[in-house]
Amino acid sequence: MGMRVVIAAGGTAGHVVPALCVADALRERGSEVVFVGGERAEAELVPAAGYELRTIRVRGLSRTNRLAAAGAAALAARAVTRATRILREVRPAVVLGGGGYVAGPVGLAAVGLRIPLVLTEADSHLGLANRALAPFARRICLAFSLEGRSGGRYRVTGRPVPAPCTDRVGARARWGIGEDEDCVLVFGGSLGAKSINEAAVSGLAEAPFVVLHISGARDHGALRPRPHGPRYHLISYLPIDRFREALAASDLVVARAGGSIFEIASHGRPAILVPYPGATADHQALNARWMADGGAAVVVPDSELDGPRLAREVAGLLGDRPRLAAMARASASLARLDASRDVAEEVLAAAGCTP
User: Fold this and answer.
1) What would the CATH number be for the domain defined by 4-160+337-350?
2) Superfamily of domain 168-334
3) How does the average pLDDT of the chain come out, rounded?
4) Quick one: which of 83, 105, 212, 232 has the fewest CB in 10 Å?
């Protein structure tokens, strides 16, 4: 049996999927990985990937409701106790904080037990838990270069994402997309994005190109009765492999600007990004600016997005093939395809192992 590693990650697929990518890289190097999470996306994704999941109860800290914040703080305190018991049982050589609400209590438990701690940050700012834990971590792996967070314990690795689908011809065939047809992929994250969903069905429903619109389960029922043409495919949810195929099949992506921008870049796709305005510290606007400054994206503020605006932006890019090709090359140049391996190496190094 190899070295044991505990990964604390949970909440949305945006936290869980990168953690699973690192887990796979660690398993390839002979490590045994146990996850600690809650009851959201990780409850399905982690066991499906073949990893053990230990659970704790924790929720986000409200910034507007004092009573809810107090309840969350009390739950977090109990979660630290539960996490401490789990770590004593599992006896890992190192703990990786992969993001989400669970990473804070598990990280604190690791610090209390003097277990080496490595953190990952997927956004363009350090989250609350990572800011609190950073002084105790052996290494903090960043998706982006952050001002004041360089050298020493910080390393820019990029965000771990699944390996890209490289069979574009096969992917397009599986979606029934002709060789000469344009394809636009629209998505808003695992939960969906209402403003993007509304703009897409309003502005692209009768488009003369293929639209793959992943709405998320929350809005799918309301969107399904809306009229749309035969080239418009409205999909509630796609598993990871099918989502990678959709990226490979597409010529242009319309999306939020969360961690999925690294998946867009890994497939070398140009993008129209609509940052979520309620993101903590407005980090999605920073994420989108990073991709736009690299020449890979056009940014549309959420407040300015509607059907006609989206239709104009899409038509403008699809109608300018040299620009679209240049954006695709720029997107591919931003990809960090070795991020999973690099984070895994830092985890092993923190445990005193040679990667």
Assistant:
1) 3.40.50.2000
2) Glycogen Phosphorylase B; (3.40.50.2000)
3) 89
4) 232
